[in-house]
Amino acid sequence: MIGQESQPPDLSGLRGPEWTRILSSAKRQLERNGGSITGAVTLSSPSEDERKLIIGLTGMHRPPGVKSIRIQLDALDEAIESEFEISLAAALAVVHGPVRNRPAERSEEQQARADALADARRRAGRHATESWFTTWLEQLTGDGTLTRLVRRGDADQLGWACQVLALLPAQEISLPVLAELATGNTKALSGTPIATLVLRALALRDDAQPPLTAGQRRDRWEAAGVIMDDLASQILVLGLRPREDHVVADWLRDAADFGIPFRLTLHQLTGDRLTVNASDVFVCENPAVLRAAASNWVETSAPLICTEGVPSAACHRLLSGVRGTIHWRGDFDWTGLRTTAAAMQRYTARPWRMSVTDYLTAIDAPLAETEPLRGAAAASPWEPELAVVMGRRGRAVMEERLIPLLLQDLHRSPTSQAPSGQ
Predict the structure, then answer these.
(1) Residues of 376-398 as b/e, b for ≥16 C-beta within 10 angstroms?
(2) 356 with 259, same domain?
């Protein structure tokens, strides 16, 4: 009838079980070919219905019990066009969903990954050429993280992460403020995929394991100068006698009089200023050293601060109020060298028992417990030979091995009598 719309073809016959494997295989082949009607599909151990169907489609006899049957895609296309007045690709779209162009998709995905990496390097600023940043991008590419971001349409999260990294390290900036400065959203770094990406990068920068716990995440942020919680950021001290007259200063002086270790929070340090006028202030890494010092405390012992690993925001705030000479040490490992070098630059600190002689004395002591050096090597600018010797030995020595020497130093004052190796 003139003006009557044409009816779509009846494709119910293509939904029978004898068509299922043929059409599924054809769709996979078309998707691999980018839609091109080339190649063939093969059915292994065809059923009787499948065998008869293919004989009908091709006009070629296949005997019962045949192990496999092969049919060219162009022949299948012609047969469906003749029977149903629709192309193979169109029929597949109706019966099994749209036929994807996988080569084109792969090309687009590859370009999207390349664009995301280029954007990441652009936003990272001065970090773009640093080895830890390059390693971070390589890891994200190699383990599929970047591909997953691209496929979810979240490739921009990598760019935002790099924009955060470009603002680090910072000087005691709160996490919401950092997030707002980098992304315009104060909650962008509160347990989000962007935060996970940033923390993974910071772990590489600090030669640490990717953080898994809340405490480890806090440590990574604080090492970059970001404050998550001014109560959680703490510093362990012994023998501090501030000059100020307020409640926290009174607590510290009372604790010092009795040789009692005291834990300060960043909240306490920001509430009231603390100034330490001791001629010498010593800094160690491990609580075992401070515990030993407390057990051997005398009134003339020098103040001791324990970082308990990478210095926290509370540690940095306290040290900014020290008016004497800061003597700094860490473990004889690569992280210990990094934190010591950073303290020298930030506080004009003097290395404390961080010489080649101290290292060799500790590592060669009878029954000395050591462990393999891990992570990227670091320099020892105060004594370059130290890093060389440590690399040659390949062993780390924890500072507990030096406790007797360290206690001697704490009982010795003033700076003019500082031990060799400082």
Answers:
(1) eebebebbeebbebbeebebbbb
(2) yes
CA-CA distance, 48 to 29, in Å (whole number)? 23
Question: What is the pTM for the complete model shown?
Answer: 0.64
Single out the residue of 200, 198, 201 nearest to residue 211, CA to CA: 200
364 CB-side CA count, 13 A: 9
C-alpha to C-alpha distance for 162 and 159, rounded to whole angstroms = 5
Q: CB–CB of 320/276 below 8 Å?
A: no
Domain contains 413: yes
Check: CB of residue 376 under 8 Å from CB of residue 207.
yes
Q: What is the DSSP string of 234-246?
A: EEEEES---SS-S
**Maximum distance among all alpha carbons in the chain?**
112
Residues 252 and 337 in one domain: yes
Looking at 100, 126, 161, the residue that finishes a domain is: 100
- Distance of alpha carbon 303 from alpha carbon 238, whole angstroms: 6
Q: Residue 154: its pLDDT value, please?
A: 94
The CA distance from 222 to 231, in Å, is 12
The range of the structural domain enclosing residue 257 comes to 234-417
Three-class SS of residue 173? Answer: strand
Q: Which segments of 258-320 does DSSP mark as H helices, in order? A: 266-271, 287-295, 313-319
Same domain for 93 and 110, yes or no, is: no
Q: What are the tens digits of pLDDT across the range 383-420?
A: 999 999 999 999 999 999 999 999 999 987 544 344 44
E strands of 300-392, at which residues?
Answer: 304-306, 325-328, 350-351, 371-372
Domain assignment present for 422:
no
Examine the domain organization and report whether 270 and 410 are in the same domain: yes
For residue 394, what is the domain's CATH number?
Answer: 3.40.1360.10
Q: What is the CA radius of gyration of the chain?
A: 34
Residues listed for the chain: 422
CA quadruple 273, 274, 277, 280: dihedral sign: negative
Per-residue pLDDT tens digits for 144-165: 999 999 999 999 999 999 999 9
Strand partners, 70: 42
Q: What is the pLDDT of residues 345-389, one digit of tens each?
A: 999 999 999 999 999 999 998 877 889 998 889 999 999 999 999
**Residue ranges in 98-144 assigned as alpha helix (H):** 102-123, 131-142
Per the prediction, the chain carries an average pLDDT of 90
Assess contact for 69 and 46: CB atoms under 8 A.
yes
* Coil/strand/helix, residue 324: coil
Bond prior to 414 in cis (omega within 30° of 0): yes
